[in-house]
Amino acid sequence: MLELVNELNAAGAEAISINGQRVISTTEIRQAGLHININTVKFAPPFTFKAIGDPKTLEAALRMRDGIVQMLADKGIAISITQEQSIVIKKYDGVIEKKFSKVVKEGETH
Questions:
Q1: C-beta separation of 67 from 7 below 8 A
Q2: How many CB atoms lie within 10 A of CB 104?
Q3: Do 90 and 17 contact (CB within 8 A), yes or no?
């Protein structure tokens, strides 16, 4: 899953979701027993990824020789890719807790 997200990001995806969970820089994707936690929400297969970006570029990145689609197929995991003209990826609705950074107004120095 992480490799798929990384490949989509590298191909220029502007937004990504997995089973409706928006993927942001702090998103955790972690196996926990027989399920996967995404943003602390439990999911079991199948997984639906959505990505906003240039559809041809995104698909080409996933289907490249020895790429993620081939790797998954070699492991017996079925994957299908469809291109749509209009999809919705909802905003992240969790709380982003910042421990070390803060907003600095223009002109301030710290």
A1: yes
A2: 9
A3: yes
Pair 92, 24: CB distance under 8 Å? yes
- Give residue-wise pLDDT tens across range 60-109: 999 999 999 999 999 999 999 999 999 999 999 888 888 888 878 887 66
The answer to whether the pTM exceeds 0.70 is yes
- Separation CA 99–CA 20 (nearest Å): 27
Question: 40's torsion region: left (phi>0), alpha (psi -120 to 50) or beta?
Answer: left
Residues 34-44 pLDDT 10s: 899 999 999 99
Give the CATH H-level superfamily of domain 2-74.
Protein of unknown function DUF881 (3.30.70.1880)
Distance spanning both ends of the chain, measured CA to CA: 39
